[in-house]
Amino acid sequence: MFPLFEENIEEIAVEENNSPKWTFLVDFKEKKFLKKNGKLIKSNDVRTARMWIEKILLTFKDKYKIYEDYGMSYYDLIIGRRFPIGFLYAELKREIEETMLSNPQIISIENFNAELIKHSLYVTFDVYLVDGSNFSWEAYL
Fold first, then answer.
1. What is the pTM of this model?
2. Is 4 within a domain?
3. Fewest Cβ atoms closer than 10 Å to its Cβ: which of 45, 74, 84, 94?
4. Is residue 1 part of a domain?
5. Which residue, among 117, 21, 100, 115, has the nearest Cα to 55 in the 3D structure?
6. Which residues contact 20 (CB under 8 A, 6 or more apart)?
7. Cβ neighbours, 10 Å, residue 85
8. Structural domain count, the chain
9. Are 62 and 125 in contact (CB under 8 A)?
10. Which of 97, 99, 100, 76 is CA-nearest to residue 88?
11. What contacts 89, CB < 8 A, 6 or more positions away?
12. d(CA 108, CA 24)
């Protein structure tokens, strides 16, 4: 019933585009998008990676259906539970490194350090990007 074609159909190789995606910049402290001349600011440089890290560290994994495969679950380790501090640091390091390396812009996380200060975790690490740039990150979790 279907017509038969004798011609060979040319296969086209599709290259995956791993270039950094652009995003609108957000000021998380002020809780608003950054604007210039009344327009939202787009970025696809180091600021994009910094913002992605900020967003992923602030997002609770599995809290909402939309974030089932996005965010961090370290909150489960530090809220209402008593784990040995060595285990807590090792698990936090593992989760942060795995999550950060899922971003195609990030090639490595180095010099990871975590310290318990009162009831918060103070975390620092260096981020290395595919474009050769790097920056240091620090945050209270």
1. 0.71
2. no
3. 84
4. no
5. 100
6. 44, 45, 48, 49, 104, 105, 130, 131
7. 11
8. 1
9. no
10. 76
11. 114
12. 24
Residue 11 lies in a domain: no
Q: In sequence order, what are the residues at sequence separation of 6 or more whose Cβ sits closer than 8 angstroms to the Cβ of residue 54?
A: 26, 28, 139
Residues 6+ apart with CB under 8 A from 41: 24, 25, 33, 34, 35
Question: Which amino acid does the sequence have at 102?
Answer: S
Q: Is 3 within the bounds of a domain?
A: no
The arithmetic mean of pLDDT across residues 120-133, rounded, is 91
> By residue range, what is the domain housing residue 46?
23-140
Tell me, what CATH number does 111's domain have? 3.10.450.40
SS (H, E, C) the chain: CCCCCCCCCCCCCCCCCCCCCCEECEECCCCEECEECCEECEECCHHHHHHHHHHHHHCECCCCHHHCCCCECCHHHHCCCCCCHHHHHHHHHHHHHHHHCCCCCEEEEEEEEEEEECCEEEEEEEEEECCCCEEEEEEEC
| Rounded distance between C-alpha atoms, residue 62 and residue 72, angstroms | 9
